[in-house]
């Protein structure tokens, strides 16, 4: 309605527009009225016109644990009070979530940080858990580890659906609490997370202890004593002293434990030896390839874990009391009520784990269309499926793999990936390089698309049999044995004049694979091609293109 009003002779909208823009920009014809106005090009180019980001390096850091609280609950009748500082909350994890709604890594940040846990509070209240950083990655993401812990797979079902005593199944998709986490292996199978090591004391010694509440009366440690001498009284609020005391407290504890076990020296030797071995390993292989894969939507992978929260003085006091030798046969309750030793400090939260990762996308499709630029791969994908890839009469129109669904009358369906054009020397980074070939590493069937008309009428193109030889060589350069899978040849542009003769010559020069003459533009020969692809898919035919079976001048 509004545009009719604008064009109505009595409408003053047209008049206003005339005033706003110079006369040469405003015409009375309805077709050019709006199109002549200067239009600003949007920032976001269509997906097809953007280059794909299928490899990215990310740095993930789990959230720091919240500090434990040091607090005493004092009352009118209780001058000294009882400890009531709660533990700090656990830091958040960095999680990669597999999603079918994401195509590549272009929306991924390089630094992924999860949130810190909340600090513990008085009245024995635990700090809140830091929120996780969940980022979505496309289906087919492969994770390589440069630095850090091996990521672990998290299962993703609401625990409400489980029986209270049921342990979430490893193969299922149950959201397991963290102690049920499993490690994922290169093959995607799960392993029990048996050697997940708790963060050690050294992890938090270097961190400044930020304690909220009043410090306990410190024992006569060397620093505390010197402070006492200077001020004439035991310092009650010195953070540094608390930290020193906390350090000594834990060092003593760990020494005692080691002495008890009588293996202190052996442990040191073992550690040195292990360290040496680890260094050697690091030197040998810096990147651990394919430590995990995300192949199904909603799969989740923890790449960096949040640090544990620090302990409040309630927890530490209980711990120290339970650890005391119980000679008098007193009960646990009596031991807890006994508040002779109320000087247990609180501890600061552990830092979260860090990981440096390389994410790589390997699209998953049943059939991969491989061909030189301008061979007609995108046109063919559009003819076979409902995909709408960009088609252009110039080379390298396709900048990212396009995936389409090939449907059959009996509801069978398969996915087809159109890979950007390859040229001779792609392995030396000519053209778009051969990085896109990683997308066909997972395809089950290969369809080589050749342009029958490329070398016709003294055009400068390459003859179809030479195109095939170059394609096979490029696949092999990318990965040995990549061409070793069921294959067929699509002889495209059969509608061009003289293409029939080239097709006949192609058949005589290339042996061992079925060749389908097709006109992708007119969708001729496409049904036969679909039948051929299905035969290769279900295994009723198995033929591959061998370099020895291609006759080139
Ligand atoms: N005559 C004829 N032209 C075709 C046929 N199929 C495709 N074309 C034309 O060939 C040109 C290239 O087609 P695309 O589908 O973009 O080729 P591509 O292999 O995807 O090219 P890249 O994106 O460079 O890899 C376009 O101008 C198409 O119209 C066909 O069967 N017959």
TrEMBL record:
<feature type="region of interest" description="Disordered">
    <location>
        <begin position="255"/>
        <end position="351"/>
    </location>
</feature>
<feature type="domain" description="OBG-type G">
    <location>
        <begin position="365"/>
        <end position="538"/>
    </location>
</feature>
<dbReference type="GO" id="GO:0042254">
    <property type="term" value="P:ribosome biogenesis"/>
</dbReference>
<dbReference type="InterPro" id="IPR006169">
    <property type="entry name" value="GTP1_OBG_dom"/>
</dbReference>
<dbReference type="InterPro" id="IPR036726">
    <property type="entry name" value="GTP1_OBG_dom_sf"/>
</dbReference>
<dbReference type="Pfam" id="PF01926">
    <property type="entry name" value="MMR_HSR1"/>
</dbReference>
<dbReference type="InterPro" id="IPR045086">
    <property type="entry name" value="OBG_GTPase"/>
</dbReference>
<feature type="region of interest" description="Disordered">
    <location>
        <begin position="215"/>
        <end position="238"/>
    </location>
</feature>
<dbReference type="GO" id="GO:0005739">
    <property type="term" value="C:mitochondrion"/>
</dbReference>
<dbReference type="InterPro" id="IPR031167">
    <property type="entry name" value="G_OBG"/>
</dbReference>
<dbReference type="InterPro" id="IPR006073">
    <property type="entry name" value="GTP-bd"/>
</dbReference>
<keyword id="KW-0342">GTP-binding</keyword>
<feature type="domain" description="Obg">
    <location>
        <begin position="50"/>
        <end position="364"/>
    </location>
</feature>
<dbReference type="InterPro" id="IPR027417">
    <property type="entry name" value="P-loop_NTPase"/>
</dbReference>
<protein>
    <submittedName>
        <fullName>GTP-binding protein OBGM, mitochondrial</fullName>
    </submittedName>
</protein>
<keyword id="KW-0547">Nucleotide-binding</keyword>
<feature type="compositionally biased region" description="Acidic residues">
    <location>
        <begin position="257"/>
        <end position="287"/>
    </location>
</feature>
<dbReference type="Pfam" id="PF01018">
    <property type="entry name" value="GTP1_OBG"/>
</dbReference>
<dbReference type="GO" id="GO:0005525">
    <property type="term" value="F:GTP binding"/>
</dbReference>
<dbReference type="GO" id="GO:0003924">
    <property type="term" value="F:GTPase activity"/>
</dbReference>
């Amino acid at each position: 309605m509004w545009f009719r009003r604008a064009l109505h002779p009595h409408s003053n909208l047209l008049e206003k527009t005339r005033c706003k823009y110079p006369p040469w920009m405003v015409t009375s014809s309805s077709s050019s009225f709006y199109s002549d106005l200067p239009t600003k090009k949007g920032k976001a180019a269509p997906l097809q016109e953007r280059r794909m980001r299928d490899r990215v390096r990310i740095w993930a850091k789990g959230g720091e644990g919240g500090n434990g609280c040091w607090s005493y609950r004092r009352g009118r009748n209780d001058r000294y009070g009882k400890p009531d500082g709660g533990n700090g909350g656990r830091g958040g994890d960095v999680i990669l979530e597999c999603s079918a709604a994401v195509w590549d890594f272009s929306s991924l940040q390089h630094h992924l940080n999860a949130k810190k846990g909340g600090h513990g509070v008085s009245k024995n209240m635990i700090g809140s858990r830091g929120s996780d950083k969940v980022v979505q990655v496309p289906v087919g993401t492969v994770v390589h580890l440069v630095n850090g812990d091996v990521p672990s797979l998290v299962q993703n079902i609401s625990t409400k659906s489980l029986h209270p005593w049921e342990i979430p199944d490893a193969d299922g998709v149950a959201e397991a609490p963290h102690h049920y986490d499993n490690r994922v292996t290169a093959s995607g199978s799960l392993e029990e997370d048996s050697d997940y090591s708790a963060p050690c004391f050294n992890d938090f010694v270097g961190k400044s202890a930020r304690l909220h509440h009043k410090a306990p009366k410190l024992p006569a440690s060397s620093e505390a004593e010197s402070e006492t001498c200077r001020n004439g009284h035991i310092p009650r609020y010195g953070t540094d002293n608390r930290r020193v005391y906390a350090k000594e407290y834990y060092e003593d504890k760990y020494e005692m434990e080691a002495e008890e076990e009588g293996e202190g020296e052996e442990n040191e030797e073992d550690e040195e030896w292990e360290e040496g071995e680890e260094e050697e390993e690091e030197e040998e292989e810096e990147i651990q390839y394919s430590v995990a894969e995300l192949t199904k939507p909603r799969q989740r992978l923890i790449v960096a874990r949040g640090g544990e929260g620090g302990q409040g003085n309630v927890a530490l006091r209980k711990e120290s009391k339970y650890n005391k030798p119980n000679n008098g046969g007193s009960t646990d309750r009596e031991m807890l009520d006994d508040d002779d030793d109320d000087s247990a400090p609180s501890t600061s939260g552990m830092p979260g784990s860090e990981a440096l990762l390389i994410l790589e996308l390997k699209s998953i499709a049943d059939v991969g269309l491989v061909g030189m630029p301008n061979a007609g791969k995108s046109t063919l994908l559009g003819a076979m499926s409902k995909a709408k890839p960009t088609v252009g009469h110039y080379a390298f129109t396709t900048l990212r793999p396009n995936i389409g669904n090939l449907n059959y009358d009996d509801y069978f369906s398969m996915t087809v990936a159109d890979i950007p054009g390859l040229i001779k020397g792609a392995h030396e980074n000519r053209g778009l390089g051969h990085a896109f070939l990683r997308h066909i590493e997972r395809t089950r069937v290969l369809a080589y698309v050749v342009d029958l008309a490329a070398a016709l009428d003294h055009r400068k193109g390459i003859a179809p049999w030479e195109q095939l030889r170059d394609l096979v060589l490029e696949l092999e350069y990318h990965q040995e044995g990549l061409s070793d899978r069921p294959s067929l040849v699509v002889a495209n542009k059969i509608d061009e004049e003289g293409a029939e003769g080239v097709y006949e010559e192609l058949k005589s020069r290339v042996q061992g694979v079925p060749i389908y003459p097709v006109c992708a533009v007119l969708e001729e020969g496409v049904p036969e091609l679909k039948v051929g692809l299905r035969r290769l898919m279900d295994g009723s035919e198995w033929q591959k293109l061998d370099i020895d079976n291609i006759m080139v001048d």
